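Field log, afternoon session.

UNIT: design team B
ACTIVITY: writing a sequence onto a fixed backbone
BACKBONE:
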């Protein structure tokens, strides 16, 4: 499911209006070697005092338990602190950004190809023979006005299901390095392949797929600027029902590049510092929340009937995060705005590009769209917190800012 309200509205005019609104290592480039990152996510520290319970936003080390003794007036009682954690294990390494950035800030075509570019290559013949693999990564909502892949699609495109082919069942963690290698090879991807990805919803899930491919070390990944909307609705170009046959590729995935992905413990450290600074960013790194303003402010959660498993118990945003709705960096036809215009949007919101940035949304795909703009178009140091608000807003004890001054969500009586 998408993590924005706008494409789910039944009225197209309402949807258009909503869309328009809608621990960084010291030198990661010098560290290498595959390692197993064990992230202990501290979600609650509870102290039992005379029958009362006090919750704080971060606990002690999971292997440590402390106790002290107090006088309650009716005798001595023991105060114990315990920490509940989720033990997340991610196999990855720090490879830096050298192979991630494709010099899109120097030549936009290095990361974004136009519909004309693709049409010209389709006219030449088989894309795979030209070293190109075209992928459709769409959400395919019933309310979409665009044609689903199963009915018709851009010629020679292969379909990839973002929710089942990138992630493990029942964990939401990504597939293993070996499994991702098998997926990529089945799509005909080789070491020198140019991977071109497009989708519906202004390339949200296409950008998510691009981030996942870069996470696993693919070197040449580009988006079709404007995606299916530009190709089908704006340009009125050809679609086909034919599913292409491809020759199996030989590309090998690398371990996840942890310089592209933020896990909750890293974000929690930043949030704790910002919370101690009255919710203001401490300046060590940028946090960018690209959800709609009413979600960021804590005025609303999500419609659980529409978004199913994406709802959150707590409403608001991570302390210190600035709000830059994703729609502020795209044109009406779904294409990205000019790079300097995009830079200005974020700088006006308070993003300092001399510091690294972490982007989040609700489930990660809009954050990937922002990552694509800031990382691939502008060449900046950006991570995606893919757990996003569906993880943060359902965690016990993490700090949250609600600009309404109210208690939003399940625990606020809403």
């Amino acid at each position: 499911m998408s993590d924005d309200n706008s494409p789910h509205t039944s009225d197209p005019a309402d949807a258009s209006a909503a869309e328009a609104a809608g621990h960084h290592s010291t030198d990661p480039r010098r560290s290498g070697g595959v390692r197993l990152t064990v992230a202990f996510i501290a979600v609650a520290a509870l102290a039992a005092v005379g029958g009362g319970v006090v919750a704080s936003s971060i606990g002690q080390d999971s292997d440590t338990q402390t106790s002290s003794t107090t006088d309650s007036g009716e005798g001595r009682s023991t105060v114990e602190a315990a920490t509940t954690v989720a033990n997340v294990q991610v196999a990855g390494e720090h490879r830096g950004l050298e192979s991630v950035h494709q010099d899109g800030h120097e030549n936009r075509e290095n990361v974004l190809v136009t519909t004309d570019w693709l049409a010209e290559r389709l006219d030449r013949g088989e894309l795979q023979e030209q070293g190109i693999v075209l992928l459709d990564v769409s959400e395919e909502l019933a309310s979409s006005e665009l044609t689903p892949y199963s009915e018709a699609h851009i010629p020679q495109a292969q379909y990839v299901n973002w929710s089942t082919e990138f992630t493990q069942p029942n964990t939401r963690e990504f597939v293993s390095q070996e499994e991702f290698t098998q997926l990529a090879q089945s799509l005909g991807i080789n070491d020198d392949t140019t991977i071109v990805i497009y989708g519906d919803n202004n390339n949200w899930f296409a950008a998510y797929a691009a981030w996942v491919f870069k996470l696993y070390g693919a070197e040449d990944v580009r988006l079709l600027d404007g995606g299916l909307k530009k190709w089908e609705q704006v340009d009125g170009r050809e679609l086909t029902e034919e599913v292409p046959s491809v020759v199996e590729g030989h590309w090998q995935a690398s371990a996840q590049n942890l310089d592209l992905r933020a896990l909750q413990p890293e974000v929690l450290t930043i949030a704790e510092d910002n919370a101690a600074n009255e919710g203001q960013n401490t300046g060590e790194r940028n946090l960018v929340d690209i959800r709609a303003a009413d979600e960021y402010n804590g005025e609303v959660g999500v419609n659980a009937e529409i978004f199913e498993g994406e709802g959150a118990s707590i409403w608001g945003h991570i302390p210190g995060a600035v709000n830059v709705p994703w729609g502020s960096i795209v044109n009406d036809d779904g294409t990205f705005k000019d790079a300097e215009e995009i830079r200005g949007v974020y700088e006006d919101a308070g993003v300092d590009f001399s510091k690294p940035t972490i982007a989040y949304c609700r489930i990660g795909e809009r954050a990937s769209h922002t990552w694509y703009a800031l990382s691939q178009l502008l060449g900046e140091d950006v991570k995606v917190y893919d757990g996003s608000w569906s993880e943060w807003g359902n965690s016990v004890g993490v700090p949250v800012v609600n600009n309404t001054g109210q208690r939003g969500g399940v625990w606020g009586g809403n």
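LOG NOTE: The longest helix spans residues 264-276.
NEXT ACTIVITY: expression trials, pending approval
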